[in-house]
Amino acid sequence: MNSKLMKRLSLLIQFLLFLSISSSLLAQDFSALKYRTVGPERGGRVTTVTGTPMLPGTFYLGATGGGVWKSDDYGVSWNNVSDGYFATPSIGAIEVAVNDPNIVYVGTGSDGLRSNVISGKGVYKSINAGKTWEHIGLRETGQVGALEIDPTNHNIVWVAAIGNAFKSNSERGIYKTIDGGKNWKKIFFISDEVGFSDLELLPSNPNIVYAAAWKARRKPWTIISGGNKKEGGIYKSINGGKDWVKLEKGLPKNGIGKIDLAVSPVDSSILYAVIEAPGKEGGLYKSIDQGASFIQVSNNKGLVNRPFYYTNIELDPTNSEIIYSNANPLLKSIDGGKSWKRMSVPHGDNHDIWINPNNPNLLIQANDGGANVTHNGGKTWSSQFNQPTAELYQVEVDDQYPYWLYAGQQDNSTVAIPSLQPFARPISGKGWGISVGGCETGPAVPKPGNHNIVYSNCKGNFGVYNKLTGIEKKYTVGASFIYGYNPKDLKYRFQRVAPIHVSPHNPNVVYHGSQYIHKTMTDGKIWETISPDLTAFEKDKQVVSGSPITRDITGEEYYSTLYSIRESKLKEGLIWTGSNDGVISVTKNGGKSWKNVTPKKLPKGGRVESVEPSQFDPAKAYIAVDRHLLGDDKPYFYKTTNYGRTWELISTSSNGIPNDFTSKVLREDPVRTGLLYAGTEFGMFVSFDDGKSWKKFQQNLPVTPITDIKIFRGDLILSTMGRGFWILDNITTLRDEKINSLKSSPWLFKPDTTIRYRSRGYRTDGIVQYPGTNVIIDYFIPNKNTSPIQLEILDSNRKTVASIVSNNSLINKTTVVENMNLSQVFKYVDTRLETKSGINRFNWNLQQKGAWSSNKNRSFKNGPMVAPGVYTAKLTVNGKSFEQSFEITMDPRVKDEGITKADIVNQIAMQQRVMDLLSEARQFQDTLEKEAKTLKGKKSARLNTINAILKQLKNNSVVYPQQMLVSQISFLLNMFSSADQIPGQDSKNRFKELTNQFHTLKNEFRN
């Protein structure tokens, strides 16, 4: 065989092998591996709210990245109703049919066009009050400014489409359906640059319609809101949208921007419009003749504050003179807009309001902190700490036990929350969390080795926060306030989300990014610049943001800044950077020299969301580049194996990640080579072959942008732009090569090392989920298996600690004994030991055999946690067994207290002795009670003796009874079972007393 043929054969074999692995992976179901949310429960940005007068306690909120939530109890609690149905979490408008609260329409795509706004995916409809949803079209319309339902016919619906926020598109316009969304017709269109921010129907005659045209476009370096008079304004139709006329009399003459409209339900002649316009022309306009003419009634700047982001007015449904303006702040007028007073709400940055027409003091309002309900016209409000819709920019973790998660939360503060619930409970009963310096943008980066020190950022301002003192020291590079500048004039250009990175080789080395890399070894007291400008710095992109009407320079649009920094864990001084204008740079010598290694085929200008140096090969790195702000939704994930000389695109149109799932973050598993995790605008993906192919890894995760990923202590940790933090506990199974070849035989995966934490068991505080301490055991069951299964836990001496079975058929009735016998196998049924085909997950709670109880459901349960050591999991399926060893280690905090493994072993031995006594006492009580029952009603000396002994054994059935022997033994057991401790001498003495008392009673009975 010649060499050419051999080469072809080799390539064919490799290709067939790749197909085999790929098909196996594509067929694999990872649904047993579930994420859990850990908060924060503090609400995030909500842009639309509504209610229904027919059910006054029912409200809906639409979050910018969290989907649709519903409350049936006046905002006391909220539940998501869009998960599993919506293709996007970005909500622009929600409306409930006036005459049927079961009919709900939702337009997706928020109208607050921030740079991180998430694309809309059309309109959804529910006919059962949000229990289920159907997508009914307009997928390409982009952001929805408004949606209105005809009050006389809920099958007639209107949609105002702003359009794609980042590029021209012909789908902008006004749409209408007359058959409940089966068919849509675009009934008004101006241009592919001009969409519609609002529309209003005349309540008394819904054929009369007002629409607000808006030219809007987001670019990475600016926000365009408005244009000349031809590119915006107010339009009216009197024949259901067949014909339109532009309303101009009395309106701004020198250009026009975003507009929001309000029609009075009590006087159909009155129409209000809040209008973005140059100078004093901006403000509130009023028409008393259905738009034939307008007068400006107020040029209060608070009405048009950041109009692209706010701009919303609503009228009291019973009084046309009472107006609410949602911006920053929330303003109210009671004289038709002539004067305004500020209203107090739980959070700033206001977006929407809905007022109950039957009771205008009952209303719901939306802002950047969530949604809040008031019964008294705004004097008091419902909580925002019951809606986990936080927008988080990143995730960092510390190295304490258990670890905590850190991030900046949009328009709130930095936040740090625990991965597991502390043993103590928060007084509020809600999830745990603290702020740690900096501000909404973050990041917040805990110092390795000292989690009490946190390096925080606030829009480019560097700080060092000390948890012990609660004080943050500020050490901003350049010591200059950079708001409001043209970026070309800045010495240091910091993005609002300026990166901070601590060297993996030296926790005292901290990197911080403007257009340069700055380095400190003194916690910010002294900064050294170690790079040239590492951005593209195109001069035409260095502009004052906000045109042509409203200036808006908060740092969000500062272009040509660094966005990501990472130093290789393998080689000190090997540092990769990515800028928000698409440049990748690398240094191999700690910044002495740099090289631009941007992929040649990467379209320019994208935001480098993440750089990831490989943890196996110093020449290898991965990047994620986001170009959706340039109108390009494609995912751009790349890898290099030669320090950036060449790059390979690993997110092609056909290898698993959809073509419109914008790339957000890519991380490499630190244990298994080639195992990659990718976060996108709409969810998670995993690759087992270094990016050749990708599989959806969404599981139970809601659809929301994944902003960052960390892999730490065997957990996969995510931050999201709309649903807070999520954790997938224990990804050891993904690291097992066997996962790529599971077929017809069962398999038991090796459990990861488990830290022996004390916890209060599984708890859900509100919506946050905290698991108890468990050994997570994953296993594979092939198709067509019908047999029950058994899982045994063996100690280092091969003694069975626990035997769990999937159903009763595996419990041998002849081996079940009534008396307590510690040599008896602790065997019980747990239906969570699934037998379904595919990968399954079982959580073993580390508990060994407990005390006997007359309640069979409690008998032998809740025993002490096993001691630290090496154990073996043994899975038996259809007579075939599989074994994997694993380790349980001490809680490092307990070790720091001076407790040793020997102390824990001795404590467990003491617990066993007390449990033996408790079991024997309970069984003795049970025996006496049964005999007393047979003797009831008879005159018997034996019955008198039994009753006398029972009085000493069991508590009397009165309020606050004296605690008798069985209760005293149980108290002693509980007293030193809730913590790892050396039992006190009093405990040992008390055990002897109780043992003697019990034996005395038994002897009395025998005699």
Question: Can you describe this structure?
Answer:
With 1007 residues, the chain is mainly β. Helices cover 11% and strands 34% of the residues. Strands 14, 15, 16, 17, 18 and 41 form a six-stranded mixed β-sheet that branches. The chain has a six-stranded mixed β-sheet with strand order 58-67-66-62-63-64. The chain is globular, with a radius of gyration of 33 Å. The chain starts with a helix and ends with a helix. Mean pLDDT is 93; it is low at 10-27 and 813-823.
Please render the helix and strand layout as text:
Layout: H1 3-27, E1 35-39, E2 46-52, E3 55-63, E4 68-71, E5 79-80, E6 91-96, E7 104-108, E8 123-126, E9 134-135, E10 143-149, E11 157-163, E12 173-177, E13 185-188, E14 194-202, E15 205-219, E16 222-225, E17 233-237, E18 245-247, E19 259-263, E20 271-275, E21 283-287, E22 295-298, E23 312-316, E24 319-326, E25 330-333, E26 341-343, E27 350-355, E28 363-367, E29 370-374, E30 396-397, E31 404-408, E32 414-418, E33 444-447, E34 450-458, E35 461-466, E36 471-474, E37 500-502, E38 510-513, E39 517-520, E40 528-529, E41 547-548, E42 562-567, E43 575-579, E44 584-587, E45 595-596, E46 607-613, E47 621-626, E48 636-640, E49 648-649, E50 663-668, E51 676-680, E52 683-687, E53 695-696, E54 706-712, E55 715-720, E56 725-728, E57 747-748, E58 754-756, E59 763-765, E60 768-770, E61 775-781, E62 789-794, E63 800-805, E64 827-829, E65 838-844, E66 869-877, E67 880-890, H2 892-896, H3 901-935, H4 941-953, H5 965-975, H6 985-1006
Parallel strand pairs: 16-41, 58-67, 63-64
Antiparallel strand pairs: 1-56, 2-3, 3-4, 4-5, 6-7, 7-8, 8-9, 10-11, 11-12, 12-13, 14-15, 15-16, 15-17, 17-18, 19-20, 20-21, 21-22, 23-24, 24-25, 25-26, 27-28, 28-29, 30-31, 31-32, 33-34, 34-35, 35-36, 37-38, 38-39, 39-40, 42-43, 43-44, 44-45, 46-47, 47-48, 48-49, 50-51, 51-52, 52-53, 54-55, ...
